[in-house]
Amino acid sequence: MKKIEPLYIEKDKDDFGLRVDCAECGTLPGAICRKSCMPIMACEFGHRHSFKVIAYEKHSGRRRTKNLKTRDWKQARLEAAQFQKEVKESISPKVQVEKPIVNILEKQNHSLLLTEGMALHVSYLRGEQNIPDHQRRARSEGHCRPVEKCYLDFISCLKKDYPVKNLTVNQVDQNMVGRFHSLLESRNPAPRTYNININYMQTLFNFLKREGHATLNPFAGVIRKPETPKITVLNKEEYEAMLEIVQKPELGICKLSSGISKNYFRPWIKDFISAGIFSGRRIEELAKAQWKSINFDREEMQSLEVIDYKVSRQQARLETNPKRILVPITSELKNLLFSLGAERYKNDPDRYILAGDEEMSRDSIKKFVSHSFSHYWKQLPYSKDKQASYKTLRKTYLSSLAGAIGISNAQVISQHSDTKVLSDHYVSSLVLGETAKNFSVFPNKDQNKGRQKKLNELRKSEKNLSIER
Q1: Among candidate residues 405, 407, 399, 397, the one with its CA nearest the CA of residue 275
Q2: pTM, whole model, 2 decimals?
Q3: CA nearest to 239, candidates 357, 380, 368, 432
Q4: What's the CA gap between 125 and 147, in Å, rounded?
Q5: Of 121, 140, 354, 370, which has the fewest beta carbons less than 10 angstroms from its beta carbon?
């Protein structure tokens, strides 16, 4: 027997009083099946579903309903509109007269179980098929796992004193929030870890409010812990030490906790390190950059065009209109590109710039480079006083860039949402302090005159050069 698909009405098409009626559980389910607690599109009782119209008499307010025989959405809307018209005009249609009770679906929004709400949000994060296309924001598995763990932690801290299986989203109160706070505090978390977990729960209830399932957000007033991130950067000595050590195959052997030995040496690891510190881009972006990604102006390399995969995934635009970043090709980056074969591979535009001969997949390379960097860094003496990862290269680049051209101009190049993100997470105050050493509150006037004279001469020479061209 062919399986009959469950009926489902999208929220933006919820009109004419149409609802889905489930004869199996005797309710009007919304996005969640109230019997299986699964998304309605996965309900196994689709054959028991029917469209139901709910209308109210104009003067008495008496509730009238009608179950439709059709399973066609367009036909159901036509019949629902006709039924609404008959009821409002007090024509006596063949209807099922019911006692004036509270609309089950309307109350359902206020009685959605907490576990159902969590499952619905995780389904939304994963971009599963029951989510309308325009709302789909598929997150990576690495993003979804900690969110699910946070939800499980919240449920576990309530199990002892609350009936969590029957707890609705609107029954979550400040006492329960306090329980979760105590659970987090008992683990002595870093401020950022604490804040991330609170953010997960706040985001959950914001989502449930937006979907009409929650009236308040109990986590809205939770005070975040002040974060003072230590922005680590590499100096030239540390960078050169990394380049040297990653070229030693014998130091690439790492024994994992499982007892298996893994070799983190590859001859192209040093290229990824140099590319990271000279471009400030993430591993995935560099791993997938091809020779055709280089933009030229008068046969001069001007910029390296990479895709911002992280932001593109967050904004669900990776497949349609990915965010692209133009990385200025500085003299250091240009020298690196020439050493990697810019001349040799100019007729092979689809070849990857980094690790072009590597058979490992680009996604695997992303993880491998990250683990390799951390493995080799731990073997350097600097690791005793400084924790570093591949992301440190990005911070080093952005800190130096901000010191050279100002944080506002650096933000234009890096394409961060604002300068606060840069200053809070990427730009080291130590690097900016080094840049400001030549600053003077009371500058020498003669020195300023000399600088102005040199500037005028430079402008004059540039003007003459443009005339000659």
Answers
A1: 397
A2: 0.63
A3: 380
A4: 9
A5: 140
DSSP run (H or E) holding 447: helix 445-468
Comparing 13-17, 159-163, 184-188, the range with the smallest average pLDDT is: 13-17
Average pLDDT of the chain is: 83
Alpha-carbon distance of 214 to 226, in angstroms, equals: 29
The backbone region for 360, taken as left when phi is positive above 0, alpha when psi lies in -120 to 50, beta otherwise, is beta
Token pair for residue 13? Answer: 């098409």
- Do residues 422 and 398 touch, judged by C-beta distance below 8 A? yes
Mean pLDDT across 321-343: 95
Q: How far is CA 75 from CA 82, 89, 130, in A?
A: 11, 21, 22
Beta-ladder partners of 296 = 301
How large a percentage of the chain has pLDDT more than 90?
Answer: 49
Instruction: Give one DSSP letter per residue of 29-93, joined into a string.
Output: --SB-TTT-SBGGG-TTGGGEEEEEEEE-TTT--EEEEE-S---HHHHHHHHHHHHHHHHTT---
* pLDDT tens per residue across span 32-58: 565 555 566 667 777 888 888 877 776
- State the DSSP code for 225: P
Residue found under tokens 């809205």? 220
State how far the alpha carbon of 368 is from the alpha carbons of 6, 117, 134, 252, in Å: 44, 37, 35, 12
Q: Mean pLDDT throughout 152-158?
A: 95
Tens-digit pLDDT profile for residues 239-267: 999 999 999 999 999 988 888 899 999 99
| Other Cβ atoms within 10 Å of 394 Cβ, number | 20
**What mean pLDDT comes out for the span 133-161?**
85
Cβ burial, residue 268 (10 Å; 0-12/13-18/19+): middle
The answer to whether the CB of 194 falls within 8 A of the CB of 138 is no
Q: How many residues does the chain have?
A: 469
One-letter amino acid for residue 373 of the chain: F
